[in-house]
Please model this.
Amino acid sequence: MTEEARPTRVETVTAAPETRSWVKSERQIRREAELRRRTRRSVSVATASTLLVAVTVVVAVTASPGWPRVRETFFSPTAFTEALPDVLRGFLLNIKIFLVAEVFILVLGLIVALVRGLRSPVFFPLRALAVLYTDIFRGIPTILLVYLVGFGIPALQLQGAPADPVTLGVIALVLSYGAYVAEVFRSGIDSIHPSQRAAARSLALSHGQTMRYVVLPQAVRRVVPPLLNDFVSLQKDSALVAMLGPLEALRQAQIHAASTFNYTPYLAAALLFIALTVPMARLTDHLAARTARRHLGGGGRA
Amino acid sequence: MSLLKIDGVWKHYRGQSVLRGIDLEVAPHEVVCLIGASGSGKSTLLRCVNLLEAVDDGTIHLDGAEITDPGVDPDEVRKRIGTVFQAYNLFPHMTVLDNITLAPRKVHRTPRAEAEKRAGELLARFGLADRAGEYPDRLSGGQQQRVAVIRAIATRPRLLLLDEVTSALDPTLVTEVLGVIRELKATGMTMILATHEMEFARDIADTVCFLDGGVLLERGSPEQIFTAPEHPRTREFLSRILGRL
Ligand SMILES: Nc1ncnc2c1ncn2[C@@H]1O[C@H](COP(=O)(O)OP(=O)(O)OP(=O)(O)O)[C@@H](O)[C@H]1O
Ligand SMILES: [Mg+2]
Model:
């Protein structure tokens, strides 16, 4: 090997630097083999310990005295297949609630964040209102808000006020999540270095143009992972609308469970929620990792 | 008539006076270099001129009109002033071309094609013709700073402010940026530069101003300031920074 490599290496050294070619050295080959060996060893150790934990859990659960009953009430295949079509139909309503709410949440959150960023004293009342809104609605548990909006607004008997439980549920979710998302947007806006604003202002861009062309595009990119995080939990919280009665997944599962005294429909609903949130969570991780890489890699910008 | 006229400008930060009654006139096509120790107020003075900071006293006139009047729209003033910062401050989410054409298109309402044509010409003139589509973080510091200069002059400002535009650069990259500034002087651009590059100041300035603790202590031709400074503080500063005199 060395005998063969030597003539090549002499040749490459005498050649001009830009035409020099790389021949992997003996040492590098050994180094890489050692690294591969170590990786293989850690992977097998990790796999073995994971399997051990999983098997222990399964054995402990199935050996427990209550297991036969639990298997009957939570893992009944017949109850599962019976409930699934209805639960799935209900779940489509969850997705609809989620999608509609998400659009309004983004709009509301962005507006509130922008209002909080206005600096002129003229806007003090608006700014105060935005602060009040975020403070109040972040403090109220979402489920409580669903009750308050869902039963409170119809009780007012206002002309033209929505009475449809799905609409009311969406309003409650939008109010609750809008406050969180406003804070996410605000933190993104605040994370943009003031020198970017100074550069934009000294190019004579107005406050609005500075926001629109310079600050927001950078801020939004940074907050995509936390926003997706909030939307994972919004997907789950779409089930809170069940409290108001519409036949979404949780409500359908409740109906089936009540008529059969079997809880497997809840498991079906849970699986559907997982099927939706897991891909979203993976996407969030992926985007977060990409953002982190960009921030580490992009030196020389201020 | 002078292009820029600064009269008795004061600036305080938290009770501390950073500028103490600065008077300075800049004629069209004149290049003024501000020198002085760190913290002497060079950046603050430049920030007052483009209205990023409000003066606490005194007046500034641009083209004969007062710009420190509360009724003046700062954006109208900034349209006529270009600024280049020490840390380039390019917009990282935009290509070089978009960085340069943003203000011409959105502020000066230049049609896109025309703005891009001018940007292309400027890039070519400063040796960056092939970089128009790159993002700033793919460029070297010297290239980024040259783009920042082009961005500042793309709107044909009356006055260009440059704040230590070479201090963030490797010595090998300083020359290329200084070359750009030299070329701008040749085209007749009026400039005020805050700088620590004494050789360069000596070479390019028509007037050198020495700031000390917020006071414009001494001004004169580069010859006079660098060979026969009158004020002992100027002499002390120069001997410290040049290691001679
Ligand atoms: N935004 C600010 N808030 C408070 N103090 C400030 C602010 N900006 C500048 N200063 C102070 O004003 C003084 C002058 O600062 P300035 O940046 O103008 O100096 P400089 O001559 O540009 O210095 P350098 O050569 O280090 O850039 C310093 O003492 C600084 O601490
Ligand atoms: Mg400075």
